[in-house]
Amino acid sequence: MAGESSAAEFIQHHLSNLTFGRLPEGHVRPDGTVVEQTTWSVAQTSTEAAEMGFMAFHLDTLFFSVVCGAIFLILFRVAAVRASSDQPGGLQNVVEMVIEFVQEIVKTTFHGKNPLIAPIALTIFMWIFLMNSLKLIPVDYIPFLTSLMGLEYTNIVPTTDPNGTLGAALGVFLLVLFYSCKVKGTGGFLKELASAPFPHWSMAPFNFLLEVVGLLTKPFSLALRLFGNMYAGEVIFILIALLPFWIQWSLQVPWAIFHILVVTLQAFIFMVLSIVYLSAAHEEH
Predict the structure, then answer these.
(1) b/e burial code for range 26-48 (CB count within 10 A of at least 16 → b)
(2) Considering 41, 46, 163, 225, which one is annotated as catalytic?
(3) What is the distance between the alpha carbons of residues 155 and 237, in angstroms, rounded to a whole number?
(4) What is the separation of C-alpha 192 from the centre of its chain, rounded to a whole number of angstroms?
(5) Would you say 158 and 164 are in contact if contact means Cβ atoms under 8 Å apart?
């Protein structure tokens, strides 16, 4: 039982986020100190993080999301500046290959006319891919380094945090609403929601309710699909880390190689579904 308890604690520790939130007056902290007045602070335990409620920030998710976004911008900026038609370098070849891949997907999936869809799709694919790729770093490396800085919890993979995946999905959802209203007009968009699937005025309330529910499921399906796959993969990495050292490498390396496919596939699925939703938003009929 002790071994099971320590294993559970190890998994929970590695999947807990560095949480910054509000502590109420009179709150007793794990070290025995009492909060004299309502204050914002970093949670010392996962239980304390849960007690902070909705108005809390996962600092590690925010930090590594921004880092991955910056890496994407820097790499593509460097490739653009150094682009050469005579002697293209390795980075330029990779960037051009990714751009051509995304362009081809947009051409076959998106049926409207919008020059911004391809850049949006490229950003989504690369950003999700880079965030997913952080799980290929051994699970103890970054938490050990951050523990030297006094940080108890660090979850470096933003896509194993439902807040991170839901944030990305909500961004896509807002784009869908924006283009739906821009292309069809606000009245046209509302009329569309009220006239399908039963094109009769008496069924308008039912149609509207049905379509709104279907519309709201899109960001949740995007977020939970990505989160579920990445979270499950991270749990397996952590379980492998609990095994004896001589077994770890025999399992971790094959699982990491297989996960390269999972990391890429999940980024691809998120991008394709985003394009499909944006394409539907551009259909005027």
Answers:
(1) ebeeeeeeeeeeeeeebbebbeb
(2) 225
(3) 13
(4) 30
(5) yes
Q: Strand runs (DSSP E) across the chain, as ranges? A: 19-23, 39-42, 56-58
Instruction: Using DSSP, state whether 43 is helix, strand or coil.
Output: coil
Burial of 272 (0-12, 13-18, 19+ CB in 10 A): middle
Buried/exposed code over 144-175 (b: 16+ C-beta within 10 A; e: otherwise)? eebeeeeebbbbbbbbbbbebbbbbbebbbeb
- Residue-level pLDDT at 117: 94
Residue 114 carries which side chain, given as an amino acid letter? N
155 is catalytic: no
Query: Which parts of the chain register pLDDT below 70?
Result: 1-5, 201, 285
CA 140 to chain centre: 21
What residue ranges do the domains of the chain occupy?
2-15+59-281
Contact (Cβ atoms closer than 8 angstroms) between residue 105 and residue 122: no
Write the CA distances from 139 to 60, 89, 131, 180, 252, integer angstroms. 14, 33, 14, 42, 11
Residue tagged active-site, from 16, 180, 229, 279? 229
Q: Give the contacts of 214 (CB within 8 A, at least 6 positions apart).
A: none
What are 89-101's pLDDT values in tens digits?
A: 888 899 999 999 9
129 close to 159: Cβ distance less than 8 angstroms? no
CB within 8 A of 218, min separation 6: which ones?
A: 169, 172, 173, 176, 277
Share of the chain above pLDDT 70, in %: 97
Active-site annotation holds for 77: no
Q: How far apart are CA 70 and CA 273, in angstroms?
A: 24
Report the 10 Å Cβ neighbour count for 13.
16
Task: Determine which one of 93, 147, 221, 250 is catalytic.
Answer: 221
| 225 has catalytic annotation | yes
DSSP one-letter code for 19: E
